[in-house]
Amino acid sequence: MSAAPVLVTGGNGYVGSRLVATLLERGYRVRATVRDARRADDVGHLVRAAGVDPGDRLETVVTSLDDDAGWAGALDGVAVVHHVASPFLSVPEDRAEEVIAPAVDGTLRVLRHARDAGTAHVVMTSSFAAVGYSPKAGGRYDETDWTDPEDPNDPYIRSKALAERAAWDLVAGQDGGPGLTVLNPTGIFGPVLDGRLSTSVGAVQGLLTGAVPVLPRLRFGVVDVRDVAEAHVRAMTTPAAVGERILLTSGDVVTWGWVIDLLRRELGADVSTVVQDGAEPPHLEISNDKARRLLGMSFRPAGTTLLDTARSLLARG
């Protein structure tokens, strides 16, 4: 194994911290970025919360997706970048550029600096938001599908489609830059390592506490944060993954009503949240065939992931 560090952007985030822990557990040296120097120690604390001793193989650097400062040093000597950091904001349509511009510009900034540093491979976390938020007859989505950014979706959803398109366009238009692999997870759930929650996990917390009185009637895919981290490591070590986009999902499609029933039945949770009235949402299937075939992935079932999410939240009070 190379002594060169692996760079993880957003190393103190929900996915990033789990990926840092997984890489360290496999013996890699890791350099993690955070955008605020006051959060630099968080990465080590989160890794230890995951049960991993980083020893002297973890370093933290301060960079921001909206500024060039620090990126040259962060990428010095790095052969592989895991670009996980991404803004996740819900804003009204008249403020859409507050989400779209940072997502696109931040992705291009990482790729350009990786190119300039001679980095060989970038593994980027995109989202099912870039794949399956435009209507499709039959409702079955795979890696050949794209969300049309002209469709009337939430600005965050459009930002994911635009940022991923921009990444592929940049790589296709440059000579000698890094190879790119894009991972497109569905809704990411799984055990938490601290009290800062992702939007998806926050919804589960809202079910357990009663803070979310109503949830929308929709179908969605589920993938475990631990499986997302595993997929990043496998993509990094699988030459055939270069140039590919790969959906990450358990294969199960659930509804909030199903999740509520699961929490009541398996945990005895007193969930008061109701699901909006209305027609049943359209059929949805999300393929994980490529992840299984190309990366050798096996995914935790959605029920296992959601119960582990809830148990970890309850354990934290």
UniProtKB/TrEMBL annotation:
Oxidoreductase listed as a keyword: yes
Task: Write down the superkingdom of origin.
Answer: Bacteria
**Which UniProt key words apply to this protein?**
Oxidoreductase
NAD-dependent epimerase/dehydratase domain spans which residues? 6-242
Which GO MF term does the entry hold, naming one? oxidoreductase activity, acting on the CH-OH group of donors, NAD or NADP as acceptor
Say which family it is in. Belongs to the NAD(P)-dependent epimerase/dehydratase family. Dihydroflavonol-4-reductase subfamily.
Q: What is this protein called?
A: Nucleoside-diphosphate-sugar epimerase
Task: Look up and give the organism this protein is from.
Answer: Promicromonospora sukumoe
